[in-house]
Structure formats: C-alpha cells, structure tokens
Amino acid sequence: MDMESGEGSAEPEVYQQELKRTLGSFQVFAISFAFISVAVGIFGTYDVVLQRGGPVGIWLWVLVAVGQVLVALVYAQFAARIPLSGSSYQWASRLASPKIGLGFGWLTACYLAIAVVAVDNALAETAFMPLFGIQPDEHTARLITVVVLLIQVVLVVVSARLASVINSSAVGIELAIVTVLSIVLIIAVAVTGRGSLGNLVSRGVTGKSSDYFTVGGGLTDAMIMGLATLVGFDSAANLAEEAKDPYRSVPRAIVGSVVTAAALGLVFVITVTIAIDSIPKVTDSDSPIAAIIRDQLGSAAERVFLTGITLAFFGAGTAVMTACSRLVFAMSRDSRFPAHRVMRRVNPRTHTPIPATLMIFVVGVVLMVALPGGALLKLIVASTILPAIIYCSTIVLYLVVRKQLGRKEGAFNLGRLELPVAIGALVWVVCALFVLTVPGESLIPDLIVVGLVAVGGLFFLSLLIFHPETLKAEPWFRASSSSSRERRG
User: Fold this and answer.
1) Does residue 9 fall inside a structural domain?
2) Which residues contact 336 (CB under 8 A, 6 or more apart)?
3) What is the pLDDT of residue 169?
4) Which portions of the chain are predicted below pLDDT 70?
5) What is the dihedral sign for C-alpha 258, 263, 264, 267?
6) Domain harbouring 392, CATH code
7) What is the structure's pLDDT at 19?
8) 55 Cβ partners below 8 Å, 6+ apart?
9) Which residue, among 32, 116, 43, has the nearest Cα to 69 in the 3D structure?
C-alpha cells in the first residue's frame, strides 16, 4: 500500500495491502459510535452519578464532552496524515521511534482486550439477565459473557463488512432508543406530573456529604459517566486500511462520533433525570434508568428498552473486538507482539486476522475463569485509566512532531486552530488523569495499570535482547536496506 505524503511528512508507508477496503464513511463512523455506545455507557454508570454526585452531577457530562472533543480533533489530525491500522501505535512508531510506538501499542491493546470483557460482562449482568428474568448470579453472567464473546469472534473473523453491518444496525437501534425514549419520557412527565425540573439541580442523597466538593469526592466522581462513555472514538483509525478514502472518512468518523454521542447523551441524561419521580428510590435501584422507565411507562416499555440496550451492548463489544484485533495484527506485522508470526496471519478468503481475533477470545475466557468478582471489577475500573494515559501520550507526541506532518490536499485539517486545540486537549487530559488516579479507592486500579506496564516492559526487554532489529526501524525500511546490501554484494 502506497501512502501519499506532503513535504516534510513521515516516511511513506509501503505495506502490501492485505486487508480489504470495504468500509464506507457511515460504516467507519458506526465503528466509533458503536464503541462509544452512549446509551450503554450512560445505562452502566448513571447509578454512580446518583450515588456520588446526585442528579446535578449529570452536568459534568458537558465538561467531559468538550474535553473529549478536543482530544478527538487531535486524533483526527493524525488519522488524516497516517491512515494505517494501529492508530497511535503507528503514529508513534513512525514519528518518534519504534520503541515508543511499542509502548503506545501495548497500552492500547491491554485497554481494548479488557474493554471487550467489560462490555460483554455488563451486557450479561445489567441487560440480558434482567430482560429474561434470570436471577442475579455471577457464574451465570460469566457463562453468558463467554457465549457472547464466541458469537462476536465468529462475526469478526467471517467478514469485516459483516461486523460493520452489525455495528451499523446497533447504531441505528441505539439512536432510536435515545431519541424515542427521550421524547416519550418528556410526554409522560407532562401528562402524569411525576418528575421535576428541580431534579436537574438536586444533590439527591448526597446532600449532607462532607467531601462533596473535594478532589475525588462526590461531585468529581460523577465525571466517571462521561469519562467511561466518551472514549473509543479513535477505534475508526484502527480500521483505516479497510476504509475507503481514509484521509477524509476516518477523521470525520473520529470527530463525528464523539460530537454525536456527546449531544445525544446530554439530551438523554437530562430527560431521564427530569423523569425521576423519587430520587432516593431510583438511587437505591440496581438499574436506575430501567427503574425510571418502569415507573413512567410500565414494565412492557422497560422490556423493550432492555432489548434495545442488549443489542447496543452487543454492537459495542463487536466494535471493540474488531478494533483490538486490527491493532494486534498491526503490531504483529511489525514483529512487535507476542507470537507475532501467528498473530499477523490474514485469512486469504475472509481477509481478516483470525488468530489475532481468537487471542482476544482466549483472554476473555481466562479473565472470566480466573478472576474473582472483586478483582474483575478493579480490572474494569483500571481500564478507564488506560485510555486517559494513551490520549495524554498521543497529544504530547502530536505537539512534539506536528511540524513533521505533511498535508494531503482535501484531507482533514484544523489549520490555525491546530496548536490551541492540542494544548487545550492536553490540559484537559491531565486534569482527567488526576481525577481518575488520585482518590484513595483508585489505588488497586492504579497498581493494575502499573502491572500491565511492567509486563509490557518485560516484553520490550525480550525484544531488545533477542530481536533488537525489530525496534530499530520499520519493517519496510529494514527490508529495503537489506535488499540494497544484497545488491551491493
């Protein structure tokens, strides 16, 4: 694959095209939007907002949304210049060094692999089991999680286009859920009188909390809804080699998905908050949004909502698995991932990296079998810290190398806003990292992140000792240099 570059850009990429370009603009957008999955994210974290920040905590969604849009704009600038599978891994490898790129890739792979399990386990516990009246049981939830992972593996390895159709369908369902439910709930509140605009400024059950305004206190804890939801917009960049016109479609998908999710999410959380009839009752519920719908619209509407949420969860998990498999493939193609000779294989019939996808399934099964409930929860919490670290590192990289980046005519470009946007994004991500890592209850998730970094460090050392050539230059450059030496010989 030849990659056009402007003057002063990174070295042109000459990978042979192995992945098939089948994804149109909406399908690339659907990958990112399905990964974000605004309804799923809000459904899974709204209880934390009520318990820690009270209903008024929903307004922190706006702050997080503005910050994440700035980050998305930086990612879009990169994606418009280097449209390769692997996103920040590729950018760091080519513009900084392969050693730094390995660090980016390892952290992102860890995050995505954990995120698949987190999404599918949440699907089982909070949507699928309540929908079918299955009593809460951790072992049952884990079995369902493994079955869902297996189905997603089959879909992802059969065809990238088939997986994108699933994602597109999930996006359509999610958009319908958020839009229709918001309208119906407002009508119900107006007709029945149950609910109140005053909920939007209420501290709810946190009214007497002494640490409400402290760092790591109730109000800042409410940021978790936005921080856990408005992530993954960069997943479109992991499918750049399967996208048509990637210089434009991928950057637009990155920015468009987070802007759309932020706007729809704000409308949704405002609506459901107004529709709360009894704040203490809803706060005490295992699934506050489902409880609000049941109180306002009845049990039949609740079941319809849970059906839609189950499908949205499934689409989100499929999108995460697809993105993760492409990143593992990209790193393995460069000989920078464990068992890379196997993980880089692309099936000649399906044009998909089957071993890389199966590896994600194996990781999921191991986590479901080996980790007790408390440890799994801490691992999932740790996965909210990883994207913030990755985003921060990518923005720093961009500020350092932005002058090396060429420009392709017609590609996405911020122009004079480029530097102010990048600086604003960096300030935001540093603040988000502070909120995520400083509170005392974050100690174990912080240690998990340190452990994942240590494992990656050991792999890095193994490459440095036994295969140093893989960390010195890009594969195409090494091959080109080797050919030149052979010709001279």
Assistant:
1) no
2) 98, 101, 102, 105, 463, 470, 471
3) 81
4) 1-22, 160, 410, 473-489
5) positive
6) 1.20.1740.10
7) 58
8) 49, 199, 200, 201, 202, 203, 204, 273, 276, 279
9) 32
- pLDDT, tens only, 391-420: 999 999 999 988 877 777 767 788 889 999
Task: Identify the residue whose tokens are 């908050």.
Answer: 273
Looking at the DSSP assignment, which residues form a beta bridge with residue 23?
243
- Whether 417 is covered by a domain: the verdict is yes
Q: What is the DSSP string of 286-329?
A: SSHHHHHHHHHH-HHHHHHHHHHHHHHHHHHHHHHHHHHHHHHH
Nearest to 51 by CA among 207, 199, 185, 270: 207
4 lies in some domain: no
Paired with 243 in beta bridges are 23
Query: What would the two tokens of residue 428 be?
Result: 């935001």
Cβ neighbours of 370 (radius 10 Å): 9
Q: Which domain holds residue 205?
A: 25-488
Determine the pLDDT at residue 148. 97
* Residue in the structure block whose two tokens are 């017609």: 410
8 assigned to some structural domain: no
Number of domains in the chain: 1
Report the predicted TM-score, pTM, of the whole model to 2 decimal places. 0.85
Residue 117's identity, in one-letter code, is V
Contacts with 153 (C-beta within 8 Å, 6 or more apart), sequence order: 321, 357, 358, 360, 361
Closest C-alpha to 160, from 355, 350, 360: 350
Q: Give the integer Cα–Cα distance in Å for 158 and 466.
A: 35
The Cβ of residue 465 has, within 10 Å, a number of other Cβ atoms equal to 8
User: SS3 for 439?
Assistant: coil
Whether the Cβ atoms of residue 119 and residue 40 lie closer than 8 Å to each other: yes
